[in-house]
Amino acid sequence: MVSWSLRTLALALVVSSDAVGVLGARIQSPFIKLPSDAARRRQDVKDIFLTSWNAYKEFAFPHDDLTPISESFTDGRNGWGASAVDALSTLWIIQEEAIFEEIVNFTSHIDFTISHTTDTVSIFETTIRYLGGILSAFELSGQKYPALVKQAEILGTKMSAAFVHTVPFGQLNFNTSTPTIQTSNIAEAGTLTLEWSRLAKYSGNDTFRALAENSVRQIASLPAPIPAFPAQGIDPSTGQSVGAYVTWGGGSDSYLEYLIKYARITNTNDNLFADTWHTAVDSSIHTLLRQSTVGNHTYLADLDDSRTIRHIGSHLACFMAGNWIMGGKLLNNNTIVNIGLALNEGCWNTYASTATGIGPEAFGYISSDGDFTGSGDPSPGNLEFYNRNGFYILPGDSDYFMRPEVLESNFYAWRATGDVKFFERAVSATNSFATFLKTPTIAFAPIDDVDSTDSDFIDDMESFWFAEVLKYLYLTFDDPNRISLDTWVFNTEAHPFIAPPEKAVYGSGKLRSADEFQPFKAMSGPIPAVSSSPKLPTKIPN
Questions:
Q1: What are the φ/ψ torsions at residue 222 (nearest 5 degrees)?
Q2: What is the mean pLDDT of residues 7-19?
Q3: DSSP string computed for 251-265
Q4: If we measure between CA atoms, which residue out of 77, 139, 141, 145 comes closest to residue 105?
Q5: Do residues 214 and 162 make contact, with C-beta atoms less than 8 angstroms apart?
Q6: How far apart are CA 159 and CA 132, in angstroms?
Q7: What residues act catalytically?
Q8: pLDDT above 80: residue 145
Q9: Could you give phi then psi for residue 79, rounded to 5 degrees?
Q10: Collapsing DSSP states into helix, strand and coil, what is residue 320?
Q11: DSSP assignments along 214-271, one per residue
């Protein structure tokens, strides 16, 4: 059950939509003071980036990803050079201009009309990594390279074939422009608006915006298991929900993330996006918010198809803390901001409590209403770990796959508050990465067990290591006015897009009415994999 203090906060959310009020919808604290060691910390991150980059260039480029243990490569993103394109915005931010220009030239000559592998193309992954990376680089460089827009338009035009109906299919055969007819999820179908609206702006073709936006409008109109929070699964053939699973984790995450970000980047007067986000947050506070019985850590549970609470969290879901901080600021609602900060503490605790100082892929916990996770009862070892730390690592989820979400939320907390503890946490994570992810061969790699200082490695360095993890760390140590959260909006792959001056407030200040929705009825059907890394490579002994 939700504790009394959190119930009080939930009530405050309903009755006080302007808790912060007069300062307007700005995210960053005006009182951030960088510690004296900030320059050295930036260089630490840059050293990790360049070590990783040089290894990628030597052993993997122009392929997608480096396999650092075997000193080879994979082409899991259609062989277009995912790590290179995904790194573009970070290269600009860390001021590696020569490498940036080299990769702009490379990107300008990629043949995006076909897949360079036999794999289908993920509309979601291609949008956030390739399209987002290309258009962000165009903006960051002062629109200096129009060839990038041409490439983005080719890519967007090809991907448009996935829109047979209002909601796009998730996979597309690029060589035949034929979608794979299967169910999708709301993250895949609802995480296109930032990139496709930006493509519409620079290409002059508003169809791109309309396609992405109409998919979100359809999802936002669906009957939902809890108010304004759709089920994770969706059938593009019908535009209707599949199943009844509710989570801030993979498969739903970035749909929710983009609702408030799209409101900010467009400054639209249509309150649908901000109000839907606000209502989903309110529903989450009333239904999903939990505190652990040890340590009083704040978490968001999942709600499964049987309407049973699952006491689980994940690295992927930990983005929500930063998203709530951002969204609460835009709504001028300090209640949401404060809960976001509390969620950030819970996520950071998963880093602070392990032997490596790095958090696991997924974890369980116990709250006053039980310990059900869907993975069986916690073992004696799990309970021992829980009694020390207020969470335990779920079986099979002890790995760290070089994900960014905890450090992403830590970055938002730092920029919103200026509290130096968030800066120091980024220092801790940087040191942990330098110590435990450094391979005996080249570069850095995921590890199999975050609670072991002698873990096996996983032989795959995905592109989001360049795009997200190292960017969020670097920006935590950088001048907060260079890439300010008040002038830039990050896509879900951490590619920044420039935003117009902020409005005074976003949304109507009211929750969406239950009268807007039909009663929810779960529809059965297969749900696709939700991990952004469904093909975990073979573990390599340390």
A1: -70, 145
A2: 38
A3: TTHHHHHHHHHHHHH
A4: 145
A5: no
A6: 14
A7: 361
A8: yes
A9: 70, 25
A10: helix
A11: HHHHHHHTS--SBTTB--SEEETTTTEEES--B-SSTTTHHHHHHHHHHHHHH--S-T
